[in-house]
Amino acid sequence: MKVIITDCDHEDINIETEILNSAGMEFELLQCKTEEELIKQCWNAEILINQYAPITESVMKSLPKLKLVIRYGVGVNNIDVVAATKLGVQVCNVPDYGMNEVADHAIALMLSLTRKIVLMNDYTKNTKWDYSRSIPIHRSSTMTVGVVGLGRIGRNFAKKAYALDFNVIGYDPYYKPNEEDGTDYITSVDIETLMKQSDVISIHCPLEGARNLFDENAFKKMKKTAFIINVARGGIINEAALDKALENREIAGAALDCVEFEPMNPRSPLFRHDNFICTPHMAWYSEEASLELKRKVTEEAVRFYRGQQVKYPVNKLS
Question: CB neighbours of 291 closer than 8 A, spacing ≥ 6?
């Protein structure tokens, strides 16, 4: 069964090579960026391991042997899942490889905003030693964190925020906090209530159904003292609206690990705000998570090759 890694920006594919060789599977690493390159170079693929290359309907229609697409990561917005289902192509991802890392990164961004770490680091280095520039800062037990999306990562983040003494509310149309799985400390609310009541909003939902969820109207509903964090997907926050909200002091600050178009334009107007923090889509990363991702992606390919049930299906095939 021919496996093609469509594209990969990792330092090496040693783990993938070892696992695929042990299973006796033929594979090849390419660096496709466009539909045309995928169609031309992957014509004989039965399994695609994919990072960023666009797996569109026209690509899949042009690969007659294709049976499985596995994505390095959680999000599958570069894969046309609806078309894949229609064409009988199984799509898989790895939803559990960096849960702690993403939650930890969101916690770090939250504390950086609420304790004004980045602001005061710059001020102390470049201006003077004076804590009063940070006023006001509030005790965590007086603050409410709103978690948008209560999947694996959202619940992981909520647990850690609660341990830090924050009050936690959450919005997720598919999940209700409950005593059985120990999430009853999260108060379930609708999205409008979350926007109005939260001192910090942390986003952990998929892009599908949530594009521009935080737009001009949303920022006007938020407290002027509130912060917003996005470690999920670019596009959930409308960046032009965020720039306007920061400019007009409609909210107190923001931290983004992902933006709609990556890499982010170094001339983005968001960078002019001293209450804006940005990291380069790194929330998922630790050495351990990186190795886990590579292993789980490749093991999923081997399971499929051996006729076993896949562990992380994104779509259901009839």
Answer: 15
Side by side, the strands of the sheet bearing 47-50 are 27-29, 3-5, 47-50, 68-71, 90-92
* C-alpha dihedral sign at 150, 156, 159, 161: negative
- Sequence-ordered list of residues with C-beta below 8 angstroms from that of 159, at least 6 positions apart, any chain: 183
pTM recorded for the entire structure: 0.90
Which tokens hold the place of 25? Answer: 């599977």
* Secondary structure of residue 144 in the 3-state scheme: strand
Task: Tell me the per-residue pLDDT of 103-161, one tens digit each, with 9 for 90 and over.
Answer: 999 999 999 999 999 999 999 999 999 999 999 999 999 999 999 999 999 999 999 99
Tell me the CA distances in angstroms from 199 to 90, 110, 126, 137, 166, one per residue in order. 41, 10, 29, 12, 10
Catalytic positions: 233, 262, 281
CA dist 90 and 316 (Å) reads: 8
